[in-house]
Amino acid sequence: MEIATLESILIMLLMVQPLIHWFYARQLRKKDYQIDTLKKSLTDLKAKWNEVERRRAFRIKLLDQECKFESIGFGDKLLEPLKHKKGEGKIKDISYLGMKLSCKLDFPVRKKIFLRLHFILCDEEFSLKGKIVRKEERMDDIFYGIEFIELHHQDQQRLYQVIRKLELERKKK
Fold first, then answer.
1. 3-state DSSP call for residue 115?
2. Which of 29-38, 71-80, 81-90, 122-131 shows the lowest mean pLDDT across its residues?
3. DSSP string, 122-167
4. CA distance 165 to 58
5. Residue 30 to residue 35: CA distance in whole angstroms
6. Which 8-state DSSP code applies to residue 91?
7. Is the pTM of this model over 0.70?
8. Exposed, middle or buried: residue 46 (CB in 10 Å: 0-12, 13-18, 19+)?
9. How large a percentage of the chain has pLDDT more than 70?
10. Who's near 67: CB < 8 A, 6+ residues apart?
């Protein structure tokens, strides 16, 4: 091939290169947008699923069942001095996903607060990790909504069985 033809091809390639770059950059932006949209949809679906699970979880009211707890972690470094603080409370209701606990300690719930909860139901001992998700103040009591986290499947099944057993015993009365 002649040098002039090669030069023409080279010049044409150099002129087309920015168009090719623009085209692929545009395609990548579209894909990034699609990925972000899918991530948001997935997050929304997870939130909806968790809400359905929470509502579906059978709760049983308890008559002031004792519960001991220890603070094990915080989402705020300023609260670290409270780590390993122990307390006692009363379980007001419980499901295999979480519990409502009343106690005198006043935790700042806007910060992530993690507790190790110890209680006995139907002669079964439980030691579960929970995160405070809600706080309700009434008169001289404070109520916390606690979501169980990092719950082993067998502990969740055991708790579910105990809750069902309690419910069946109540229905017999």
1. strand
2. 71-80
3. TTEEEEEEEEEEEEEEETTEEEEEEEEES--HHHHHHHHHHHHHHH
4. 12
5. 9
6. E
7. no
8. exposed
9. 95
10. 88, 89, 90, 91, 99, 101, 117, 118, 119
Mean pLDDT of the chain: 86
Structure tokens at 111: 């910060």
Residue with tokens 């670290």: 80
| Structure token digits, residue 70 | 């220890």
| Count helices and strands in the chain by DSSP H and E runs | 2, 6
The structure tokens 């390639």 sit at 13
113 and 149 in contact (C-beta within 8 Å)? no
> Is the CB of residue 156 less than 8 Å from the CB of residue 128?
no
CA dist., res. 78 & res. 138, Å (int)? 27
Q: Are 119 and 67 in contact (CB under 8 A)?
A: yes
